[in-house]
Amino acid sequence: MLEATNKTGNRLAGRKTAGQKAGSSGAPAGGIPPETEKAAPAAGRSDDAEPIISIRNLVKIYKTKKVRFRALGGVDLDIRRGEFVAVAGTSGSGKSTLLNLAAGLEKPTAGKVFIREKPIHKMKEDDLVEFRLNHVGFIFQSFNLMDTLTTLENAAFPLMLRGIPPLKREKEAKAVLSALGLAGHLAHDPDELSGGQQQRVSIARAIITKPEILFADEPTGNLDSETAEQIMEILQNIVKENGTTLLMVTHDMEKARYADRIVYIADGEVVKIEENCGQKAACARDRQQRRA
Ligand SMILES: Nc1ncnc2c1ncn2[C@@H]1O[C@H](COP(=O)(O)OP(=O)(O)OP(=O)(O)O)[C@@H](O)[C@H]1O
Fold this sequence. Notes:
By secondary structure, the chain is α/β, with parallel strands linked by helices. The protein has 8 helices and 10 strands. The strands form 2 sheets. It has a 6-stranded mixed beta sheet with strand order 6-7-8-3-9-10. A 4-stranded antiparallel beta sheet has the order 2-1-4-5, covered by helices on one side. Strand 7, helix 6 and strand 8 form a beta-alpha-beta unit. The longest helix is centred in the last third of the chain and has 18 residues. The termini are far apart. It binds adenosine-5'-triphosphate. Adenosine-5'-triphosphate binds next to strand 2 and helix 1. GO terms for molecular function: ATP binding; ATP hydrolysis activity; transmembrane transporter activity. This is ABC transporter, ATP-binding protein. Belongs to the ABC transporter superfamily. Keywords: ATP-binding, Nucleotide-binding, Transport.
């Protein structure tokens, strides 16, 4: 799957996914199970817009020889197309577990996840690889850049997996990196970049395929506060300008407030969902719906 592993063993994606394989092509997703089921509307949905991600009664129980731990206890959530949703909660509340299940990086113990009406929870790993490569981008706290590749090569990597010829992928990577202020750092290796620059490279890599959905797990967790704000503004702009859907996990309420909606999670359960009226788009949409 997306966890392309580089020569030195760096993974390109999230935690606890060790058995997953690297994606290898840009061919359209094949072999996806037929759409025999659809998510019923979630309770408490605030609008009638078709969700791009639907999560139903999602349960994750981790079992080891010694422990059995319920990390998610039946989560329901709809995420609208073009929406920026932050999942907030304390350490160990289940945020990353929710993101990993929503992205198909881990399998649920029970429950369902639909992305664009595709049943992610029952897709085979090979189909998930293709699906993610074509529809989804990931951004992680630890950047997960390949340390043997330059800025340009890291950003262009997903296009290489899609079989795009070198000149074309370099041109596209240069354009995305320039927009992120990295035109002067194309030949740098990751260890020659600051943390904020590395995260911008990882954002470039995540958006270069123009994914409909971005998953971000504590994207500013390793950055100082000023750099973190810049990264949050970049993410917010990607949502606004490209219409990308963003699901971001954070323990930091300051960062959560960049989102259109904040989902609070505690002990593996959603305890509150808040429209963020600091974000004009979300509130305008709310007001419109209330009037309708
Ligand atoms: N592979 C695993 N095996 C056993 N327990 C696990 C596993 N992964 C996560 N857990 C447990 O599930 C709970 C939720 O973990 P998760 O990583 O989702 O929390 P989080 O809210 O993202 O925390 P943090 O903000 O600290 O990253 C934790 O109590 C954790 O110990």
